[in-house]
Amino acid sequence: MESHQKHQWTKDDVTTAVRRNEFVPFFQPKIDLATGISSCVEMLARWDHPELGILPPSQFIKLIESAGLIDQFTDNLFRQSLASAANSGMTGKDIGIAINFSSLTLQDPQAPRRICSLLNEYGFPFDQITIEVTESATPENLSSVIKSLTTLRSQGFKISIDDFGTGYSSLKLLSKMPFTELKIDRMFVAGISENKKLTGILESIVHLAEKLNLNTVAEGIETKAQLDFIRKLGCNVGQGFYLGSPARDFEVVNVTEDARFAMA
């Protein structure tokens, strides 16, 4: 793992990987904390490197953006995800897919049309797709992103603000964008046991979301104590290794036995 972190990939490396379809989707369940059921999975990008194996997005996302490949990369992963859902028999059933879209993609006025066209091709309902946008990645051309998200929301898509609390313009984004969901960054969840300030911030975020009628998702749940705290706090949905690990096969995405017992 350490050698992976030190490897300096080039634009040629990722361009070749995109051409060879080496980037693949993994799926992690988002668990309804009231029922213990997964009604949505998040698509997580991975690089299936022919020599080094599975690599995380921290190894390649920024380079793909700077190489101008993000649209092709995202469309390809989205298509793979929809095909996996269709092959598993999930199309049309009550299971959603959440996918991260770069703001570089969303600032293109044609992005909503491309996204809708792809879903129509696979017969997947618009209202079962959640578009996740990382607040720290908001571009200077904010108005174009807002227009795209507003169009998608009007078509029935859910819109999520990812890693909430890690950027500088959280409240501004909440007031301008048509979000339906707020994802609480894992740093707040990880710090609940030893940092009272983080706990207070987490409580404030959940209460803010309730006031704005937004669904809340807590990321990075890795222990039973964290799950218990998040449930007591009133978060709607949880995600993390304690609840379910990312899986390559859409059909095997499920809730862990520990989580089932904890939420019974």
Structure description:
- With 264 residues, this protein is α/β, with parallel strands linked by helices.
- The chain has twelve helices and nine strands.
- The protein has helices spanning 2-6, 11-19, 61-66, 70-87, 103-106, 111-122, 142-154, 170-176, 186-190, 196-211, 224-233, 257-262; strands at residues 23-32, 38-49, 53-55, 96-100, 129-134, 158-164, 181-184, 215-218, 237-238.
- The longest helix is centred in the N-terminal third of the chain and has 18 residues, at 70-87.
Question: What's the gist of this structure?
Answer:
Helix 4 packs parallel to helix 6 (111-122). The protein has twelve helices and nine strands. 42% of the residues lie in helices and 20% in strands.
Largest sheet: 8 strands, mixed, barrel
Large-scale geometry: globular
Look at the structure and give the CATH class.
Alpha Beta
**Succession of helices and strands:** HHEEEHHEHHEHEHEHHEHEH
Q: Which strands sit side by side, in order, in the main sheet? A: 1-2-4-5-6-7-8-9
- Average pLDDT value? 87
Q: Which architecture does the CATH hierarchy give at level 2?
A: Alpha-Beta Barrel
Strand content: 15-25%
- Helicity, in percent? 40-55%
What is the first-to-last residue Cα distance? Answer: 36 Å
- Given helix and strand content, the structural type is alpha/beta
Count structural domains: 1
